[in-house]
Amino acid sequence: MPIDVEARACARVLWDFHAEPMTGPGDGPADLILGLGSHDLRVAHHAALLWADRTAPLLMFTGDRGRRTNGGGGHARWERPEADVFAAAAREVAAIPDSALLLERGATNTSENFARGRDLAAAAGLDVRRAVVTAKPYMGRRALAAAAVHWPGVQWTFRAFPGGFDGYPDERYSERELVHFVVGDLQRLDRYAERGWSAPVAVPEEVRAAQRRLIALGYTEHLVPD
């Protein structure tokens, strides 16, 4: 069932705020592309394109199984860690050799994506000073906020697959589900900063007002308990 006009307008406000980091200028060649594991294989495909475009010589995928890929919400449990599934999906797009690919298979959340990714890079002897992180488009601010705490000392840039709010929904991901996600990710910016899991992010009142309205309309499925 399609969402109504008011909900769509409010969701666009949240989407634009979340995705704004990927509209900034690039910073030249990076040392590493970090692909955050999730249920959305478009992230893996975009990471492969970034690598093929020589954004960085190395590509790392990080992720075991998250809530959805572990069978939450009635979804099928992935048989392999997200990192392995993403690597296979990326190689459908580009011929990435083993020498250019690192897989971190233990992370189950965004904080661990960066913390475990940092440890893997260190174990491999990498000196990462400039890196690109790619994830679902609405995770831009949350990814950079987590990176600031769990992998500091790196100049991070966020990039995600194109399409915008209108292009994200498809036969697998409904527009309604997307609205639940953008509401929940805004809440996570606050909650995770309070718990020391990510850096604080300033949220404009216009964005908070849109979130409050969406919560009042029932878009609460992706919220975390207080």
Automatic annotation (TrEMBL):
<feature type="domain" description="DUF218">
    <location>
        <begin position="34"/>
        <end position="150"/>
    </location>
</feature>
<dbReference type="InterPro" id="IPR003848">
    <property type="entry name" value="DUF218"/>
</dbReference>
<dbReference type="InterPro" id="IPR014729">
    <property type="entry name" value="Rossmann-like_a/b/a_fold"/>
</dbReference>
<dbReference type="Pfam" id="PF02698">
    <property type="entry name" value="DUF218"/>
</dbReference>
<protein>
    <submittedName>
        <fullName>Uncharacterized SAM-binding protein YcdF (DUF218 family)</fullName>
    </submittedName>
</protein>
<dbReference type="GO" id="GO:0005886">
    <property type="term" value="C:plasma membrane"/>
</dbReference>
<dbReference type="InterPro" id="IPR051599">
    <property type="entry name" value="Cell_Envelope_Assoc"/>
</dbReference>
